[in-house]
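Hi team,

Below is the intake form for Peroxidase from Erythranthe guttata. Please confirm the fields before the structure is written into the shared record.

FORM ID: S-0412
PROTEIN: Peroxidase
ORGANISM: Erythranthe guttata
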Amino acid sequence: MQLLCFIILFLATFPPSSSSSLSFDFYTLSCPVVELTVKNTVRSASDVDPTIPGKLLRLLFHDCFVNGCDASVLLQGNATERSDPANQSLGGFSVIDSAKRVLEIFCPGTVSCADILALAARDAVEFTGGPNIQIPTGRKDGRISMAANVRPNIIDTSFTLDEMIKIFSAKGLSIDDLVTLSGAHTIGRSHCGSFNDRFKVDSNGNLTLIDLSLDRQYATQLMKMCPNNNNDRVTVNNDPSSPLQFDNAYFKILLAHKGLFQSDSALLNDERTKNRVVEFANSQDSFFERWSSSFLKLSSVGVKTGGEGEIRQSCSMSNT
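The structure came back. Fields below:
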């Protein structure tokens, strides 16, 4: 109770920051409890549901790649980003909403949903064994969310390397960032429909590999886990070896030709990216070091600051 009274008194003493750009101390005076609140919310949700970290990390990708890191993917309604079929399998929304509700009690009208999402994804990585990263805050929430903007801006699992490079480059991200951030697939699960075009099964159960870069034994395992009439509901681990641990196993899996998606295998099959895959497979420290840099860039893509956006009262709807 004494701590709660201190926090309320502290917040009443210092008004919200009026900074118009991202900074590492943006909420130091206006809401010093923000990072601890988000971290505790992510931890509590992940303890109940171990798939939460992967969902939060994917949610950030889908937000930042479409209209920048402005929490526009959180907005509900007809023809919003969230309503697009490509985003129907997204999860983790309730975690962001929970953190927002708590922060609205301690720091009303101060912390953006965009910042909460970026911090939650950062914490999801740390919670599952990844590096602890400091990221700046001060993002504003966008007011516009259009389903039509989703497909031209996100990576499809069947993309070639050139197609992925084009999307990443448009966001100010390099080929190295592409390889590094693909390491996010070391946690999380995916629906069968996102990869079962890499093989086909005839009426007798015989397997034919369409994508010959996929290990045949692994393809057989996937086939058994993905019955043809259940592809929209069944999910499998992105990383079959350590699915709940953020580590460099994803890159080891690529070397074994067991990348779940065609877009994963593309990283190994091209000289522009292969060496980095090998490097990360051999050194988790190297991957973590590079991840810290690339994640910082990702979480800063197209951010809105100052008067460019708003601080939503609810993450699922605009204030106006």
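SUMMARY LINE: The domain at 2-154+302-308 is CATH 1.10.520.10 (Peroxidase; domain 1).

Thanks, M.
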